[in-house]
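Morning run. Coffee first, then this:
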Amino acid sequence: MYMFKTKGFTLIELVIVVAIIGILAAIAYPSYLAQTRDARRSDGQAALAELAQFMERFYTENNRYDEDLAGNAVALPFAEAPKDGSIKYYDLELQAVAVNTFTLRAVPIAGGAQDGDDCGTMTLTNTGARTPVDCW
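And here it is:
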């Protein structure tokens, strides 16, 4: 009688490997999505901080936030975040601007990847006040 040495995997071994891969994927994928959402939020926050610096430079040159010395209204240098790349996640706007105050907003683009973000719309004022506080 011949003794055959088997080569390869049995069906049960293959099913076990596929089940392990499925469990790891079920754990890793939501974590990956949360990390990418947080990274996009950080990029929106960095864009708000950059626009706040722009507004402070504008104030230094014109002694007011709302218009320059010639009477032209202030215009933001960019209106979407991230500045680079074709996919945008936030619309950036100057919500409220007066002689001595401003409020910048980052609004998730409707239907975009950040639309369901828990933080939603983020704001930054000339005093450095940020909302929502727990997202910064």
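The beta strands are 80-81, 90-97, 102-108, 122-125, 130-131. Good start to the day.
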